[in-house]
Specification:
The chain is of the alpha+beta class and 178 residues long. The protein is 16% helix and 40% strand. The strands form 2 sheets. Strands 5, 6, 7, 8, 9, 10 and 11 form a 7-stranded mixed β-sheet that branches. Strands 1, 2, 3 and 4 form a 4-stranded antiparallel β-sheet that branches.
């Protein structure tokens, strides 16, 4: 027997924080008829940017992450603001975080960060032929270092654990690398 869609009640807001909201929803199991409580993390969609310089290197960033309490090697990205397309957010985030801009933009696809309780999607956009012509505009909580990495090095950086962010790995998977 295949799993079926659950009947759910109207989600009730349980908390609002700067970058997400917590909602509680009642669900009825189609298998048992039992009513259970679930919590959802609701936030705007995110975008990840795989940007290539005119020389073909990948524009990456190193930044401290509170979740792992370590400096992580990632690609630029962030929240898609209300009214923005993933492509518009990608252009904005790339310039804000790295100072790189320009180039040809293409949309690769999206993934569900954690379908168990996240309600959003993470989109991946590729920008080819970028140059350091923009201005950094870091958020107060950002302290970034830009690093240019040859594309051929990315699989090894994932395999050896240098790149550990699952959504960055998913972006490179969409590119056909991982």
């Amino acid at each position: 027997m295949s799993p079926k869609k659950w009947e759910t009640g109207e989600p009730q807001e349980r908390g609002e924080f700067s970058i997400f909201r917590v909602k509680e929803v009642q669900g009825v199991s189609p298998r048992t008829g039992e009513e259970l409580k679930f919590y959802l993390l609701e936030c705007n969609d995110w975008v990840n940017v795989i940007a290539f310089t005119v020389e073909g290197e990948v524009v990456m960033i190193r930044q401290y992450r509170f979740g792992t309490q370590q400096v992580e090697l990632e690609i630029p990205g962030g929240v898609i603001e209300d009214g923005e397309t993933p492509e518009e957010a990608a252009v904005r985030e790339l310039e804000e975080e790295t100072g790189y801009k320009g180039g040809e933009i293409s949309y690769l696809g999206s993934v569900s960060p954690n379908p168990a309780f996240h309600t959003n999607r993470c989109h991946t956009v590729v920008i080819q032929g970028v140059k350091p012509e923009g201005e950094l505009s870091l958020d107060p909580g950002e302290d970034l270092e830009v690093e240019l990495i040859p594309l051929t090095d990315i699989p090894e950086l994932i395999a050896n654990g240098t790149v550990r962010h699952s959504l960055v790995m998913a972006a490179f998977q969409l590119l056909g690398l991982a």
